Amino acid sequence: MELLFNCKLIKLMGGGTLNSLLCKCVFFVIAVLIIRALLFPIFVGVEWSNNLAYLRKNNSPSFGLGVRQEKFLEVPQIVWGLNNQKIAFARACLTARMLNRTLLMPSLSASLFYKELDLLQPISFHKVFQFDKFNELCSGFVQLGRYSDLMNKTQVLELQKGSGRKWTVERDLDQLRQYSKGSFDEYEVIKIVGKNPFLWHDHWPVKDYAKVFECLILVEEISQEADKVVSMIRSVGSQSKGNNDHQSFENVPYVAVHMRVEIDWMIHCKKLEQRLNTNQICSSKKEIIERVGNIEGLKSKTQVVVYLAVADKLLQNSSVLDGWEQGFVPYEKKKLGVEKIYSKYPYLIQSAIDYEVCLRSDIFVGNSFSTFSSLIVLERTQKMIKLGGNSLCGSDVRWPSFAYNIQGELNGPMKWVTNMSDSSLQAISYGTNHISC
Ligand SMILES: *[C@@H]1O[C@H](CO)[C@@H](O)[C@H](O)[C@H]1NC(C)=O
Ligand SMILES: *[C@@H]1O[C@H](CO)[C@@H](O)[C@H](O)[C@H]1NC(C)=O
Ligand SMILES: *[C@@H]1O[C@H](CO)[C@@H](O)[C@H](O)[C@H]1NC(C)=O
Ligand SMILES: *[C@@H]1O[C@H](CO)[C@@H](O)[C@H](O)[C@H]1NC(C)=O
Questions:
Q1: Mean pLDDT across 409-416
Q2: Which of ligand 2's atoms lies nearest the C-alpha of 152?
Q3: Which structural domain range is residue 295 located in?
Q4: Atom 7 of ligand 3 has which residue's CA nearest to it?
Q5: In this predicted structure, what is the pLDDT of residue 112?
Q6: Which residues cross the membrane (predicted)?
Q7: Which of 152, 184, 214 is the last residue of a domain?
Q8: Where a domain ends, among 149, 183, 214?
Q9: Of the residues 10, 62, 65, 67, which should be mutated to test ligand 1's pocket, given the most ligand atoms within 8 Å of the CB?
Q10: Do both 209 and 245 map to the same domain?
Q11: 217, 129 in Cβ contact below 8 A?
Q12: 378 Cα–ligand 4 center, Å
């Protein structure tokens, strides 16, 4: 058994009481999981055993011997949408992990990438996500360093990433292997030059990305803004029910819909549909409203608060609030009165707040060809797995997600969970209609 082996290894390597204590703790946790599985045989389905394997693997990095703290990897500024930036960041982390190096804290971009480089507004990672928390949560797996940690700034080796069709996944991997050995490995800093890390070849399974995402915790200021928005949504939900019991409004459920109906998305998705020969990517406003309205269990409710996450600036027509069936009470930022919260911040932070609001919703509905939606579903799937439910696709799960671009039961949207055992993040970065429910 993998774990037993790890513990023995630690002991062989002279691990003291701390390590053996750690081993005992892990055995205890595993024992609890096994006992639980025995006591509740219903849970022991394929999904449950997959989840167990996922949890175990996910925890194993803490048994690792750590990442070198005196060798660094430097990457170019990270660009594009919030979630492309998150994927790019994770890819940079996993590249550093492969080279057994600490990643020098990269710059993100506060504005959306419009090719004009001077408008990119670099923003340091630690202005958005907690730096120390990241290193704490990802300890032994990947590490972030500061430029002030460098000993000798002259020892920098440039690694030129290739591009184009001839630059295959295998060549990219070979290059990384080469740079993790011999004289290359002696340099204090390896600096990757080339395009945005989001476009680098992918060599890592979904669970490795998920592990990095788990360590990304928003800084207090931003998460408090998200708290405010979530409270607003829940409180309008409670008022529209005529419920004056202020103590209970924290529990008023809401549905979040990531509505992609802006002009530029519509143009992009039509092209994509043509290229992939499908009609399951673009959904009109009408189709979204209809499918959300058909979600099982919602129809019987008297009032359902729906938060519409829309890119307001790109939306030419704000009629997204019209056309909802009776019982559905749609809100966007303006109607909710939270525009002021958002307008204080640049694009990246606004997007991070919206992400958080969707993440915490009781039901999330998005588009499976959107990176934003896909990462939310990935995080919600992780939450579900941690709760240890019996079936991720059942009808009474906590944190359910749906894709409105694919038709599911009763003309509703399709149930959606991320396949954590997928061997690459490709599906999430570029969209898919195989959504594993
Ligand atoms: C990384 O380097 C550390 C320190 O040299 C070493 O103990 C560890 O085994 C290395 N990790 C990997 C994955 O090679
Ligand atoms: C930094 O590295 C360069 C090249 O290896 C070396 O010549 C120089 O003496 C080093 N400086 C310090 C302060 O270690
Ligand atoms: C917005 O769209 C609706 C229906 O699609 C249409 O009736 C309305 O005229 C549009 N409004 C504007 C300002 O374009
Ligand atoms: C999840 O991914 C694995 C590995 O690619 C694959 O074998 C499995 O069939 C997928 N599961 C689902 C439900 O799509």
A1: 93
A2: 1
A3: 220-430
A4: 319
A5: 78
A6: 21-44
A7: 214
A8: 214
A9: 65
A10: no
A11: yes
A12: 15
Ligand 3 pocket by Cβ (under 6 Å): 317, 319
Q: Rounded to whole angstroms, how far apart are CA atoms 318 and 380?
A: 29
Give yes or no for residue 68 CB within 6 A of ligand 1. yes
Least confident segment among 23-32, 169-178, 294-303: 23-32
Distance CA 122, CA 76 (A): 11
- In the chain, how long is the greatest CA-to-CA distance? 71
The amino acid present at 178, given as its one-letter code, is: Q
Residue 414 CA to residue 419 CA, distance in Å, equals 15
Mean pLDDT confidence for 228-245:
78
Residues 204 and 233 in one domain: no
Ranges of H-type helices in 127-219:
131-137, 169-179, 182-186, 206-214
What's the rounded Cα separation, in Å, for the pair 40 and 58?
23
The DSSP bridge partners found for residue 329 are 305
Is residue 306 assigned to a domain? yes
Whole-number percent of the chain with pLDDT over 90: 53
HEC per residue, 56-98:
HHHHHHHHCCCCCCCCEEECCCCCCCHHHHHHHHHHHHHHHHH
Q: Are residues 263 and 177 in the same domain?
A: no
The rounded Å distance from CA 154 to ligand 2 centre is 7
Q: How many angstroms separate the alpha carbon of residue 285 from the centre of ligand 3?
A: 12
Give 47 Cα–ligand 4 centroid separation in angstroms.
11
Pocket, ligand 2, Cβ cutoff 6 A: 152, 154-155
Predicted local confidence at residue 2, as pLDDT: 36
Q: Under a CB-based contact definition with an 8 Å cutoff, are residues 270 and 241 in contact? A: no
- Among 328, 335, 331, smallest CA distance to 303 is for 328
- Cα separations in angstroms, 411 against 36, 194, 323, 368, 395: 37, 46, 17, 17, 15
Predicted confidence (pLDDT) per residue in 36-60, tens digit = 544 443 333 334 444 444 444 444 4
Total structural domains within the chain? 2
Per-range mean pLDDT, top range of 138-142, 324-328, 383-387: 138-142
Same domain, 204 and 263: no
Q: What is the pLDDT of residue 55?
A: 45
pLDDT at 397: 86
- The tens digit of pLDDT for each residue in 66-86 reads 899 999 999 999 998 899 999
Average pLDDT rounded to a whole number, residues 288-314: 86
